DNA sequence: CGTACCTGCTAGCTTCTTTTTGCATGTGCG
DNA sequence: CGCACATGCAAAAAGAAGCTAGCAGGTACG
């Protein structure tokens, strides 16, 4: 999903929510410079591993980063993350299009019922 | 911030957070088609006025919509909202640049003091 | 073996966001 | 005057998100 793909409403919310956070912004920034493994990245950013994992998971769920498990020279398991080269342009029109495809939370509701 | 302005980190977070919500996406979508006043828009979207006000305030705080108070023919005060024609392109590089300018939470808040 | 790395997970607390509910104010009209 | 429509705000309830602390498992090296 490298270039300007038309995002569905739910996708868009997920991506925006994933990026709407200082820590996750810094994670994306760091990974855009160089891929990194979890522990090292946590040190680099000055946050705990557990916290970073949560943020990484959220970014991965939005498709903004991907993980690749590798074995280092000395046999340690290293989980390397890298950014997905996304390009997302936000305009009122793009949002209007995406909003059409928004999923309604649950049953009990259907657009155009009562006026 | 109409066209491709370089957003500061905090601005970016604010804008992304403002858009990362189904209701607010629908609000922007509706306003991009036609400006609307609060009560009417609430009916159109099927949500309460109070709730819509909160969402509108958040969108306005992010600079995505603006309000204009007008008097209708019959003297009622109508608060019309409209979208700001923003264009925001998100890429890892843009985020990396914005992340540089992120404000740190700062444990003790002191107006006027620099760090 | 103990230490130093790497990985992952969850329980529980805190904090922020979202939503509801209720009140207060103003104008025009039958 | 009371009803219908417009505006606003704010406290409190409900829910989601953020963060810490602790546990568990793996490999390598001195």
Overall structural class of chain A, as computed from helix and strand content, comes to alpha+beta
Please name the CATH topology of chain A: Arc Repressor Mutant, subunit A
Q: What's the count of strands of chain A?
A: 4
Helix % of chain A is: 40-55%
Low-confidence runs of at least 5 consecutive residues of chain A: 107-115
Largest interface: A-B, 34 and 33 residues
Order of helices and strands of chain A: HHEHHEEEH
Mean pLDDT of chain A: 88
Subunit arrangement of the protein: homodimer
Total discrete domains of chain A:
1
InterPro entries (chains A, B): ArsR-like_HTH (IPR011991), HTH_ArsR_DNA-bd_dom (IPR001845), Metal_resp_trans_reg (IPR051011), WH-like_DNA-bd_sf (IPR036388), WH_DNA-bd_sf (IPR036390)
Keywords (chains A, B): DNA-binding, Transcription, Transcription regulation
Protein name (chains A, B): ArsR family transcriptional regulator
GO molecular function (chains A, B): DNA binding; DNA-binding transcription factor activity
Task: Describe the structure concisely for a colleague.
Two copies of one chain form a homodimer. Chain A is an alpha+beta fold.
């Amino acid at each position: 999903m490298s270039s300007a793909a038309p995002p569905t409403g739910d996708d868009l919310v997920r991506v925006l929510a994933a990026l709407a956070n200082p820590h996750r912004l810094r994670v994306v920034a760091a990974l855009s410079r160089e891929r990194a493994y979890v522990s090292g990245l946590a040190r680099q950013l000055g946050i705990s591993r557990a916290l970073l994992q949560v943020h990484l998971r959220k970014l991965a769920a939005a498709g903004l980063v991907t993980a690749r498990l590798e074995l280092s020279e000395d046999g340690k398991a290293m989980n390397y993350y890298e950014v997905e080269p996304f390009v997302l342009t936000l305009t009122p029109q793009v949002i209007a299009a995406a909003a059409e495809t928004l999923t309604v939370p649950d049953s009990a509701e259907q657009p155009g019922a009562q006026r």
